[in-house]
Structure formats: structure tokens, C-alpha cells
């Protein structure tokens, strides 16, 4: 490795005229044109590489850096990171596969609008790796655009994955989203507020009769909205008093499909007696309808289920249409039309009732279809019975019948134990 002066000959011929530089040297044909100093080296594959610099100290510094990285074995081609984030990110996206089409749809939507459609994606990977403040400014741009903190953190996670891939490919030396100066917004968690029985009754009464029992089923067994839309008559085991959650209705590329529940987790949930009786009456009044939809994707194999809840003309429910009914039923019931009062609140209500009666957190997580009981604990810990009071009752029971401690120990006057 060496630093070369491109403006002057290193081996001039005798008699060649010199330039007016100090010290005077024999000029090359490139004298006075472009950057004067050039670093030359051979990479790990033996291929000669070159970089030009305006001044000699900068060239010597780069020469030393490259030599050290080659010696350590962590050499990165300085030219490799010249690809833009947009170009490399789209290559990364093209390699993605997922059994869940909606995941890819969400990635395309979010990255297309907030990354590839923004100025940040026009910077090269190497520029972003060296200038993390550009990424912090991009995060601030998303905040100013009104995105929620949780959404921003999801987008940052995907872009961080792109940078990790670039590191693995040897294009950059570090992931700039992992440095301390880049900080996505913190998600300020709000305590979920379950509905009271009175609210459940009022909202159910505000729905058309063919849909009212969905409210009870969601609040009694913790179904998600799409899972409620996909409940079939053979999912209800009245004899064993359980409900099997086996499928959901989703929208993929604008079309309704059946698929497994979220994260492909089927589950079995206890069926409360009161809900069982209401579902039995519902089945008598509104006969289940055989509905056939493609499985998982619009091009998937046909799957048929005898659904409890359908449109009046016997089609599977579409959340975009049903949410209007849900909104109007809340208005009738006097429930604020906020995001917190979407159908997901029924799951919170079920979790609240289970925890209030002492069902352990791992079992609640299983009934809700959560992978991680720790997540369930974080979301619903404030709904659990007061731990201090439970601990006090446990110790009172343990020490029941023990005499007054101060008397038993003969504590001196003026002292405490």
C-alpha cells in the first residue's frame, strides 16, 4: 500500500523540465487536474483498488485505515457502500418471503411511503453509516408527519434490518441505527380499560340481532375481530363447553380470505354457560351459512366453513363494512368513538374478567393466543388483583392463631420490633 502523487513523476527522465511547484518536480499529464493524491492497495481478493484525495494527510490517514483493516480481517471496500438506501432496500425487499401476505403488504406500504418515497433513501449506505444524524432527522420527519411512536419504531426496525443485511454483505462497517445518538420515539403505553358488563350489553343491543352475540362471544372468550367473523358452528363444543379458535377472515389485496389465527396459533377457550346459551339461541334464530373463501391468499385453495355471523345475503363479513355498524352501536350506547373502543376492547374485557377471578397469567396468554406470557403481563398487569393485599392475606392465614408479637417477645417500653 502506498500514497502516490498524481501530479508529479516519481521516476522522471533526465533533462525533463520541472514545474513551478515547491519543491520543483517533473509534472505528469494530469498536473493541476483533479485530486492530486492517490491511495493504492490490493483487497483481500488481490484486486487493485484506488481512492483519490485532495491533500496528502487525508490520503495517508485512509492508507493507514485500510492497512489496519486488512491486517485485522475486517476490511470493507470503501466503494461498496456507494449504492443508495433506496436501491439496496428494494433489492432486500425482493428477497423477502413470508407465509403471511399481509406482512409483506404492510412492509411495502410503510417502506414505500416513509422510506423509499423520502429524501433519506437517496443517500448512499456509506453516507448514512458515517452520518447517523441524517437518520435522526428522518425519524423526526415521521413524527412531524403524525405517525404514532409504535409505527415509527416498526419502520425503523425494518430499515435497521436492511442496514444489518448491508453489514453482512460487506457494504458498510456498522448499522447507523444502532448508535446511541439515533433514538426512535418511546412508546408511551396506556393502560387498557375493559368494558363493564353494562357497556357490553348496551353495545350488543345497538347492533342488528344477527351480530349481537359477537359482542358477548368476544367479551367472554377473547376473540379478535377476524376470528369472530370466522367462527363456525363446529367450532362450538357445547358438550365440553369450549370454543375452538381455528381461523380468521382477513383482507388480502382487497379480497376476503380465510387463514389461521394470528401467528398461526389455534387455541381452545372455555365457553361460559351464559354465552353458550346465547349462541344456541342465535343458531336457532339465524341459521349458520356455508361460506367458501380462498385459504390464506386470493389464489389459495377454497376453504368452506359454516359461519355463525354473515351478511344478510350470506357472505363473510368485511371489517371495513362492519366497523361502521360497530361505530353506530357505540353511539347508541353512549360509548366514545375512540380507537380504544374498537372491537379489540372485547379481548381486554375477557382478560380482565379472567384475571379478576385469579386465572394465572400464562393461562390467560394461552386463551388470548399470545406467544409470550410476558407480553400479556405487561399489557394487563394493572388489571390483576392487588399483589400487596393478596400477600397480606396469605401471611395472615399463615400466622393465624399466633399471639401478639410484642407480648410474646416482652418488648421493653418505648421500643418497637
Automatic annotation (TrEMBL):
Keywords: DNA recombination, DNA-binding. Pfam families: Phage_integrase. Residues 1-35 are annotated as: Disordered. It comes from the Bacteria. Coiled coil: none annotated. InterPro entries: DNA_brk_join_enz (IPR011010), Integrase-like_cat_sf (IPR013762), Integrase_catalytic (IPR002104), Integrase_recombinase_N (IPR010998), Tyrosine_recombinase_XerCD (IPR050090). Transmembrane segments: none annotated. Residues 183-396 form the Tyr recombinase domain. The keyword Lyase does not apply. Belongs to the 'phage' integrase family. PANTHER family: PHAGE INTEGRASE-RELATED, PROPHAGE INTEGRASE INTD-RELATED. This is Tyr recombinase domain-containing protein.
Amino acid at each position: 500500500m502506498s500514497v502516490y502523487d498524481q501530479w508529479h513523476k516519481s521516476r522522471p527522465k533526465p533533462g525533463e523540465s520541472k514545474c513551478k511547484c515547491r519543491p520543483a518536480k517533473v509534472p505528469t499529464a494530469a498536473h493541476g487536474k483533479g485530486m492530486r493524491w492517490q491511495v493504492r492497495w490490493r483487497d483481500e481478493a488481490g484486486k487493485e483498488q484506488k481512492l483519490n484525495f485532495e491533500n496528502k494527510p487525508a490520503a495517508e490517514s485512509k492508507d493507514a485505515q485500510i492497512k489496519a483493516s486488512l491486517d485485522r480481517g475486517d476490511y470493507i471496500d470503501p466503494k461498496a457502500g456507494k449504492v443508495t438506501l433506496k436501491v439496496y432496500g428494494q433489492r432486500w425487499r425482493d428477497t423477502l418471503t413470508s407465509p403471511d401476505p399481509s406482512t409483506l403488504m404492510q412492509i411495502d406500504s410503510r417502506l414505500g411511503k416513509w422510506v423509499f418515497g423520502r429524501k433519506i433513501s437517496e443517500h448512499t449506505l456509506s453516507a448514512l453509516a458515517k452520518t447517523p444524524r441524517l437518520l435522526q432527522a428522518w425519524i423526526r420527519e415521521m413524527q412531524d408527519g403524525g405517525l404514532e411512536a409504535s409505527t415509527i419504531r416498526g419502520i425503523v426496525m425494518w430499515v435497521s434490518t436492511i442496514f444489518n443485511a448491508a453489514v453482512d454483505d460487506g457494504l458498510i462497517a456498522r448499522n447507523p441505527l444502532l448508535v446511541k445518538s439515533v433514538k426512535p420515539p418511546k412508546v408511551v403505553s396506556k393502560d387498557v380499560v375493559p368494558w363493564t358488563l353494562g357497556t357490553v350489553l348496551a353495545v350488543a343491543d345497538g347492533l342488528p340481532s344477527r351480530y349481537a352475540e359477537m359482542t358477548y362471544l368476544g367479551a367472554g372468550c377473547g376473540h379478535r375481530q377476524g376470528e369472530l367473523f370466522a367462527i363456525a358452528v363446529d367450532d362450538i363444543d357445547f358438550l365440553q363447553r369450549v370454543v375452538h379458535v381455528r381461523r380468521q377472515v382477513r383482507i388480502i389485496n382487497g379480497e376476503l380470505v380465510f387463514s389461521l389465527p394470528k401467528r398461526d396459533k389455534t387455541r381452545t377457550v372455555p365457553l361460559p354457560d351464559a354465552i353458550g346459551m346465547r349462541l344456541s339461541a342465535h343458531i336457532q334464530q339465524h341459521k349458520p351459512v356455508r361460506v367458501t373463501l380462498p385459504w390464506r391468499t386470493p389464489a389459495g385453495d377454497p376453504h368452506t366453513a359454516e359461519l355463525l355471523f354473515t351478511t344478510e345475503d350470506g357472505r363473510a363479513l368485511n371489517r371495513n363494512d362492519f366497523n361502521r355498524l360497530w361505530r353506530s352501536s357505540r353511539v347508541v350506547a353512549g360509548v366514545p368513538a375512540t380507537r380504544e373502543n374498537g372491537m379489540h376492547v372485547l379481548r381486554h374485557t375477557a382478560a380482565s374478567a379472567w384475571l379478576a377471578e385469579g386465572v394465572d397469567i400464562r393461562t390467560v396468554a394461552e386463551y388470548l393466543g399470545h406467544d409470550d406470557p410476558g407480553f400479556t403481563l405487561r399489557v394487563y398487569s394493572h388489571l390483576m388483583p392487588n399483589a400487596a393485599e393478596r400477600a397480606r392475606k396469605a401471611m395472615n392465614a399463615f400466622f393465624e392463631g399466633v399471639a401478639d408479637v410484642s407480648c410474646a417477645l416482652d418488648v421493653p417500653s418505648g421500643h418497637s420490633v
